[in-house]
């Protein structure tokens, strides 16, 4: 199998938080990635339509969408792409609802570092491959 970096779509409206995520990923030298960043849900949906990604990092609070519906829109557009949700919205009900509806991980902003994020990405990709191959 030929090696290639993981293709990551980051949907995050806060430029500082997006830079923080990029820096976290860069500090984990064992993880190679190509990051595409967009600020709105509609941009993310267009990117999923035109490009291939290994994982989506999704903030649930965006200028053009918020909450559970943000996840559902991404998941319906690309049901075979694992979604790692990260949000400042500390809502256990939404966390469980998104996980029960197909999200692979749910992280609260500030509660993880680069290694946690890379682990979440890699585990999400592995679980999705298992789910797809199991069908």
Detailed description of the structure:
This protein has helices at residues 15-27, 41-50, 68-77, 92-100, 114-134; strands at 6-11, 33-38, 55-59, 61-62, 65-66, 83-87, 105-108. With 135 residues, it is of the alpha/beta class. The chain has a single domain, classed as Rossmann fold. It has a 5-stranded parallel beta sheet, with helices on both faces. A two-stranded antiparallel ribbon has the order 4-5. Strand 6, helix 4 (92-100) and strand 7 form a beta-alpha-beta unit. Helix 1 (15-27) packs across helix 5 (114-134) and helix 2 packs parallel to helix 3. It is globular, with a radius of gyration of 14 Å.
Summary keywords:
alpha/beta; Rossmann fold; two-stranded antiparallel ribbon; 47% helix
CATH superfamily: Response regulator
Summarize the helix and strand pattern as letters.
EHEHEEEHEHEH
Q: What is the residue-mean pLDDT, rounded to a whole number?
A: 91
So, CATH architecture?
3-Layer(aba) Sandwich
Biggest sheet details: 5 strands, parallel
Strand order of the largest sheet: 2-1-3-6-7
For this structure, the CATH topology is Rossmann fold
Q: What sort of overall outline do the alpha carbons produce when their principal axes are compared?
A: globular
Total count of strands: 7
Poorly predicted sequence stretches spanning 5 or more consecutive residues = none
Q: What is the CATH C level class, in words?
A: Alpha Beta
- Percentage beta strand: 15-25%
* Cα-atom radius of gyration: 14 Å
Structural class category: alpha/beta
Domain count: the total is: 1
Task: Kindly report the oligomeric state of this protein.
Answer: single chain
- Please estimate the helix content: 40-55%
Query: What's the helix count?
Result: 5
